[in-house]
# Entry
Amino acid sequence: MDPAMIANLPQVRDHVLSGGDVELDLSAALDGLREEPSISNQLIAAEVKEAEVTKIQSDTANMSRVEKMNYARERGLTKPREDVANTMTMNEHAAVLAGLSPVQRMNYARRHGIV
# Structure
């Protein structure tokens, strides 16, 4: 998100230029941001992702561990997430590895190209 976009909102501009004398109308400012196409697209994507997570949680709520793993494998949920795997540093990977069993460490390292 571009900070200039936020600064150009009339509600924010009035609040800042008045030195805080004009109270910031946060709901109107958020509505203004929602009207921006790039922001609304991000909000829609977040809502879709949230709906997917909710569906997975409801589907797997009463499953055993084996059933959950089969569910995840069938739907391709066992692959590393691009939004996490690509941005993690080696220290962050090491922190994750520290909490895993030896077999889990090897699987994690293989999936993330560490080994």
